Backbone:
């Protein structure tokens, strides 16, 4: 079973809140959900929409048709009518407009209910939510509980006020449309689930990974991470700072990381551009840092509230000069949890920036995530600080004195922070350890951190840093996950990040027509291990690249790094996420 519910109206009318509540209702009843939002960069005005797909099976992409459309204005019907079928339910107020079309019309008197209860116009969304619940056969009690949770800090009066509007919408359907009620929202099974957006998943994983400092300047679509982590500060002890600009953001995080605190920053393309010089600073000082880059269409301001995968090559090449960095790209909420927590370990192990690539579609869409999955992940996860050591570790080690003591006659011992090592990773003694010192700045340096411009010393440090890439590819690079049978597949999709759900859904649809496909999903994007990937690209097979950008950036990266050229491309770059139907139609 799969069912799509969508609500639309003017910005400022609580569309996002209402949609999320609907997702929570379905999730608590045991359904898997996937939802996404659409909105312009306006505080008031413009069209907002929130779409929820529910299913008894795992779903991570939208369906082609809308089964229930909730219209808070005429514009909603006009924009989405092409996705309606004769069986579709359309909820609206006939006092606002007359719904014309071949679908089931469900008139709910928003305005009369608001007038009767002496409420503001914004209460339309609560009335519509109650009506939707009744129309889909749900129990009003579950909505009551969510309203109580949502407004628990505002007192009983506000809770009762909201319940009244929801109940009136619910009762209107029960009394006037009993024959149109569909038994959709009936409890199917008991499974504890969370409804998490990609940003929620990043926030949760940052807590799991013991991040101690998160710094950001608000920038859609990464902004909610800042608000979420700030709201958790008292429980987690994490320092969350809203700095004055993105330059301050990343330099604050580099400073806190240098001092020993696991640190991260979050931003989107324009903010990331301002951080580029400091990323190179983290590269040469070998300071761990996690960067959350949630993409939106550029260049410049572009389309601030829409989605695109246009920053991959930018992220890989960010920072002047040559130094190692790691780029990861989750495809859904579970992968976001896994890869974010892994990113903090990788940043510490390799003492370098690690970039988590998201986009508006992944960041702001919600997914059902099993609580069992989260609990098992927490139980199995362990913090790995790599070669970060403390004074007692140094004193108790069997390291030769030359490693950390260049001057036997001095009471201060000069620690070799940038010691040349076989794996490219030097010991990291946190500043503040009594009796030891080293220099760390933006210049090329000797093993002890002191500045050098000597060619051979420069070459040794560059080679040392570059050896981290070899070590990473050997020990931590993960090959792309393959969905389907490569040998039997007629078509092999290749993609990365948030397009994962749409491709997998397209595979399911194609399988029904006996079309055999496979899918290579990249989430470890850079560096790439050629010898570990080559076997995935077979001769005499049709490969199709799927990306939300106009250049086919993963395709360019594969050509550059491993010499693989994918000629067939399905590219979308209008600010909207690619859908399974678009993939199928493009074939």
Residues:
């Amino acid at each position: 079973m799969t069912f799509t519910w969508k609500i639309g109206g003017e910005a400022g009318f609580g569309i996002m809140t209402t949609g999320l509540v609907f997702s929570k209702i379905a999730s608590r009843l045991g359904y898997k959900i996937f939802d996404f939002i659409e909105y312009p960069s306006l505080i008031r005005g413009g069209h907002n929409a929130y779409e929820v797909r529910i299913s008894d099976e795992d779903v991570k992409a939208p369906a082609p048709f809308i089964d229930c459309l909730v219209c808070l204005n005429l514009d909603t019907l006009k924009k989405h009518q092409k996705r309606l079928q004769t069986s579709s339910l359309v909820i609206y107020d006939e006092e606002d407009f007359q719904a014309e079309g071949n679908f089931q019309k469900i008139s709910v008197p928003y305005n009369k209910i608001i007038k009767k209860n002496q409420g503001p116009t914004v209460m339309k969304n609560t009335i519509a939510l109650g009506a939707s619940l009744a129309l889909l056969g749900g129990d009003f009690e579950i909505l009551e509980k969510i309203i109580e949770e949502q407004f628990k800090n505002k007192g009983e009066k506000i809770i009762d006020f909201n319940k009244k509007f929801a109940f009136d919408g619910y009762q209107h359907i029960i009394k006037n449309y009993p024959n149109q009620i569909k038994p959709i929202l009936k409890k199917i099974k008991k499974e504890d689930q969370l409804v998490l957006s990609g940003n929620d998943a990043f926030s949760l994983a940052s807590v799991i990974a013991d991040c101690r400092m998160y710094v950001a300047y608000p920038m859609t679509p990464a902004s909610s991470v800042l608000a979420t982590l700030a709201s958790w500060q008292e429980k987690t002890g994490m320092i969350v700072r809203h700095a004055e600009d993105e330059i301050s953001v990343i330099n604050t995080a580099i400073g806190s990381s240098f001092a020993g605190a696991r640190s991260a920053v979050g931003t989107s393309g324009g903010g990331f551009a301002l951080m580029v010089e400091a990323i190179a600073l983290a590269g040469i000082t070998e300071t761990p840092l996690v960067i959350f880059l949630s993409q939106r269409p550029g260049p410049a301001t572009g389309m601030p509230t829409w989605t695109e995968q246009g920053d991959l090559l930018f992220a890989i090449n960010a920072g002047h000069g040559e130094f190692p960095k790691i780029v990861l790209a989750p495809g859904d909420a579970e992968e976001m949890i896994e890869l974010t927590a892994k990113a903090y370990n990788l940043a510490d192990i390799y003492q370098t920036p690690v970039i988590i690539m998201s986009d508006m579609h992944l960041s702001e869409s919600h997914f059902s995530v099993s609580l069992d999955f989260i609990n098992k992940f927490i139980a199995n996860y362990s913090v790995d600080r790599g070669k970060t050591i403390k004074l007692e570790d140094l004193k108790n080690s069997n390291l030769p004195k030359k490693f950390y003591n260049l001057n036997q006659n001095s009471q201060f011992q000069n620690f070799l922070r940038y010691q040349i090592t076989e794996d490219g990773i030097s010991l990291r003694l946190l500043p503040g350890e009594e009796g030891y010192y080293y220099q760390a700045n933006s210049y090329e340096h000797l093993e002890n951190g002191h500045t050098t411009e000597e060619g051979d010393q420069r070459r040794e440090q560059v080679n040392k840093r570059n050896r981290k890439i070899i070590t990473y590819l050997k020990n931590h690079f993960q090959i792309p996950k393959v969905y389907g049978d490569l040998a039997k597949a007629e078509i092999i999709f290749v993609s990365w990040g948030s397009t994962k759900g749409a491709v997998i859904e397209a595979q399911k649809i194609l399988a029904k027509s006996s079309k055999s496909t496979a899918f290579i999903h990249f989430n470890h994007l850079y560096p790439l291990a050629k010898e570990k990937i080559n076997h995935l690209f077979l001769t005499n097979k049709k490969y199709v690249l799927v990306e939300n950008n106009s250049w086919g950036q993963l395709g360019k990266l594969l050509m550059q790094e491993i010499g693989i050229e994918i000629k067939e491309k399905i590219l979308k770059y209008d600010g909207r996420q690619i859908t399974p139907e678009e993939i199928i139609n493009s074939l």
In short: DSSP finds 21 helices and 24 strands in the chain. Residues 445 and 529 are 29 Å apart (CA to CA). The two ends are 26 Å apart (CA to CA). The longest strand covers residues 2-10.
